[in-house]
Design goal:
about 160 residues, alpha+beta, Nuclear Transport Factor 2, Chain: A, 4-stranded antiparallel beta sheet, 3 helices, about 30% strand
Length: about 160
Amino acid sequence: MARRTNVTLAATLVVALAIAGWFGYRYVEHRDADQTNAQAVSAARQAMKNFMEVNQSTLDRDLQRVADAATGDFKSEFERDRAQLKKAYTEKKVQAHGDVLDAAVDTKGSDDDSVRVLLVVDQNVKSGPTPQLRHYRIQVDMAADGDRWLVSSLSFVS
């Protein structure tokens, strides 16, 4: 009888340790994913703020900040259109200020080295006598590049 009790206790202990190990692993996995997502969202917020900011006195620097936070298709498209953007901003004397109102991770579009972030952004634009407030919903795919997150694609969501 004592032997059966010892075997039962040992088996119960093994099962309890296995369950505790599994829950511990899942906790660490979720904590790491939350940290990754938070870093990607923070980078996306800053990238969209940079993307929405236009100031004539710092235009080259403003455009460079966008390029520095870009990779992949988005970087290629931006670099291709950069000179035209600069010309249009200069000719129309565009001044713009952007505010990211909210941002969240789209978990269905995310994995270990890419995170899809959905943002709500307001942009105040002045290029004439009357400033305009514009509202945007933007989806950005962020790609891990070492310890940084870069914008790999950007699309406006209707």
